Amino acid sequence: MVREGGMARTPPSSTQDIQMDVLDNAALQGKYSKRKSRFKRSDGSTSSDTTSNSFVRQGSAESYTSRPSDSDVSLEEDREALRKEAERQAMAQLEKAKTKPVAFAVRTNVGYNPSAGDDVPVQGMAICFEPKDFLHIKEKYNNDWWIGRLVKEGCEVGFIPSPVKLESMRLLQEQRMRQNRLSSSKSGDNSSSSLGDVVTGTRRPTPPASGALDMPSFAFDPDELEEEEAAMETHRSPKSSVSSVTTPPAHNKRIPFFRKTEHVPPYDVVPSMRPIILVGPSLKGYEVTDMMQKALFDFLKHRFDGRISITRVTADISLAKRSVLNNPSKHTIIERSSTRSSLAEVQSETERIFELARTLQLVALDADTINHPAQLAKTSLAPIVVYIKIASPKVLQRLVKSRGKSQAKHLNVQMVASDKLAQCPPEMFDIVLDENQLEEACEHLAEYLEAYWKATHPPSSNPPNPLLNRTMATAALAASPAPVSNLQVQVLTSLRRNLGLWGRGGTDAAPPGALEEHAL
Question: Rounded to an integer, what distance in angstroms lies between the CA atom of residue 199 and that of residue 398?
């Protein structure tokens, strides 16, 4: 019974287990069905809500990061505010500099064309200039920019790139040029190899193997070839928005051979007012030339009274070359070769000329040793060269012979000097006086100097230079030319009688009171 009972109890326990399993499975199915129904989407897909919620959260995070944050916006606003404040301060400093005196002047050896990417302190206020222009520098703004103006009528104060800035721009421009040339050469090689070898089937000639034919390759300066290519590119393509630093092309440049390229500085420091120097019609020291130049000096003294300093220079200022003064090793060579004046004298005279020019007055030099414009071409004086020209050699011969035997015996020397001046190209002179009347020649010179005065004295700089009175009372008066003798008055009278240069037959051609002053 017990066994039966035990056997009888065994099936029910198994069926209970089965029933419990069924119930458990049903409960599990109910749970799963509920979870699945809970995870179903509206379109009947069986993706879980957790994945869909993760998609929603991921999308919202992306949309949040795509928008600029408040901190980024505030940083941009701060940068813009700082930029506007710096520009406002730079503009205020620019306005103050208009009334400041000229600190120094430079002559440009390169050209500059500004662009928007040059980091100018005030956009649109950078000054554009060409080679051989003159700039008046008022003050230094920072290491990259100066404040000054182009010496030209109607030009106002602006920002001028410093030599450091121009050098960095030049290096960047050369780097871009090399990269462009390298990329174009690579593309040219690929196109030539594909077209020349594949399409036409022709072979390119092999380069010569002999060493003698490779010699001309050393004779070319790569920097000069780059300059020629850059010049050709500028002629082919229009101007871009990129700023450019240009160097003037050299005339009749010889092919260098094993020559080191000499780096030319972008600026040369020159006097604030370019000194006026008269040359011609022949050699100084002879009566005809001295009297013609003396008549012009007298006119300038009366016409620009209070605005001009006329000073005599006895030292040979043609020795004041930049390469000599900046290189102490050449001083001994000059001292040995120069018998007229020492280098210390020359340097002292040069400094005196610079000091006179600081007053922004016209400065006229009665230089004894200067008879040709090439003598001052390599100096830092940058003078206004005035050429007194007698076009007819016969007229000059007649004038020299009229001064007697003491002058006639040096006729050939004076004629050769006059011929050398006549052979000079016009660009070597700033003004050529070839008029037949003294009045016309004087007015021609006066018009040029009045225009130069307006270019160097803009209306915005009305306050006078404080150095004006001091220099006028000391340096200019102490170095004034010696009084004219009665012999010079006779020469002027003889010139008027023998040539209509000083007025044909009339006494009103000379400046009023000039002859009487000489007689005194």
Answer: 79
